[in-house]
Design brief:
The chain has 14 helices and 19 strands. It is an alpha/beta fold. The strands form three sheets. Strands 2, 3, 4, 6, 7, 16, 17, 18 and 19 form a nine-stranded mixed β-sheet that branches. It has an eight-stranded parallel β-sheet with strand order 8-9-10-11-12-13-14-15. Strands 1-5 form a two-stranded parallel ribbon. Helix 4 packs across helix 7 and helix 8 packs parallel to helix 11. It is globular. The two termini are 38 Å apart.
Length: 441
């Protein structure tokens, strides 16, 4: 039997568990799993001593193109994804102009063609003036779904009132991904940030109640509209407890940053480089996020990769923008947590491959199985490495985890049978394609 690519001797993590087997790839899909000693192939990878995971999917990144390319673009952002072992990304709509029309989605897809190293999809931003067209436009190829900002963050998209939000939820059927912070409470408490003049006040201004108020409002309106929602970057113990009682309607994301960093230490050490929305919170909340992962409340890990230049981050707080890099560090950070015993490798896969596929109804990705896309994140679970700014592909050139020692490292990224990264080197040319979705009705 002839194949385009064979991965030999790796430890594969499949729906059956971890097994030692070869994988044969043909036409960009998994053709055979088993003993391929006599298989003929155009390309071969010896994965002896390595672990082959289903390709990691990062369903929340901000790659800033168009309009903000000075800090990131689709080429540099997807290069970071490939270096970090990520095979597909879902990109957010708060660019300039915002991605709120069919034309804007088409423009991003055109920009990605021949420049994106990994597969990709783009969110359609909800706004008061496009509600009537969301159900039509969300069906576009390459559209990941609808994104709602209930609280102002980076960019101009905002759906702060219940009437508009409910109208959004009543249009269409794709998953609606929501940034939950209550805009009214943010405005009321902004003086706390202004008075402090230091990012240590960030989680006081954008406090836990600000997040919980918005999350409760969202779920109440989702119940009325009978629409499933996905609550992004959940940061608080109270939200996790509430959302655990509403899993019939709401799926849940958290981020590696919120699982790894804690206030106030991170603000004292990193200053504005630890500033993101919703904020990094104290250890009580971080512990609750880990408990929610253990309890199965969390469905997805997203990096919320949101780069800004050093000049921008060095502005005095709160004029400094919120956001940090994350797509390239997601896999090594979380593999280190696996090493530390905070979650199993199988749970990591559920949060980064099977979970995204389940939540967003992705076609052909999310597991190592016959007929699925040949997407693999190949990792060395024993490798000890140090995350550095110099390793970061993002145009902004920094990570809040600079200097952090981790165990577990991505050594190859394979997208539909194409090896796009191996041993830290990008290979070939960018050939990422739009992610495909199954339509549920």
């Amino acid at each position: 039997m002839t194949y385009d690519l064979i991965l030999r001797h790796g430890a594969l993590v499949t729906p059956n568990g971890t097994e030692r087997a070869d994988i044969g790839v043909r036409g960009g899909r998994i053709a055979t799993i088993g003993d391929l000693t006599h298989g003929v192939t155009a390309e071969e990878i010896d994965a002896r001593g390595l672990t082959v995971l289903p390709g990691v999917i990062d369903t929340q990144v901000h790659f800033r193109e168009p309009g903000l390319e000075h800090k990131e673009d689709l080429a540099s952002g997807t290069a970071g994804a490939a270096q970090g072992g990520v095979v597909a990304v879902f990109e957010m709509p708060n660019t300039k102009p915002s991605t709120t029309t069919a034309e804007a989605i088409a423009d991003k897809l055109a920009r990605a063609r021949g420049r994106a190293w990994v597969d990709h999809a783009f969110f359609l931003g909800a706004a008061a003036d496009n509600v009537a067209r969301l159900a039509e436009w969300e069906r576009m190829p390459g559209c990941a779904g609808v994104k709602v900002f209930m609280g102002s963050s980076t960019g101009s998209l905002l759906v702060a009132d219940d009437e508009t939000l409910e109208a959004v939820l009543r249009q269409g059927f794709r998953r609606v991904a929501v940034h939950c912070e209550d805009e009214g409470r943010l405005a009321e408490r902004k003086h706390l940030a202004d008075k402090a003049g230091h990012p240590r006040a960030h989680d006081q201004w954008r406090d836990a109640e600000t997040a919980l108020l918005a999350t409760r409002r969202l779920v109440r309106l989702a119940e009325s509209a009978r629409r499933r929602v996905h609550v992004l970057h959940v940061t608080t113990a109270e939200e996790m407890a509430f959302l655990s009682e509403h899993k019939d309607l709401a799926t849940v994301e958290t981020t590696p940053q919120h699982l790894t960093l804690a206030a106030p230490e991170c603000y004292e050490r990193l200053g504005t480089y630890a500033q993101m929305n919703p904020p990094i919170r104290d250890a009580r909340h971080r512990d609750a996020l880990w408990q929610a992962i253990a309890d199965g409340v969390v469905d997805v890990l997203g990096s919320d990769h949101a780069p800004h230049t050093r000049d921008e981050k060095d502005k005095p707080y709160p004029q400094s923008p919120s956001g940090m890099t994350g797509v390239q560090t997601l896999v090594p950070l979380m593999l280190d947590h696996v090493k530390q015993g905070r979650l199993s490798l199988e749970r990591f896969i559920d949060l980064t491959s099977a979970g995204p596929a389940r939540v967003y109804n992705i076609a052909g990705k999310g597991r190592i199985a016959l007929g699925y896309d040949a997407d693999f994140t190949v990792v060395d679970m024993k490798a000890e490495r140090t995350i550095t700014n110099a390793w970061i592909e993002s145009r902004c050139g920094w990570t809040p985890f600079d200097g952090k020692r981790v165990t577990g490292w991505p050594v190859a990224t394979i997208v539909r049978g194409r090896v796009v990264m191996r041993d830290g080197q990008l290979l070939g040319s960018p050939a990422g394609e739009p992610v495909r979705f199954q339509e549920s009705r």
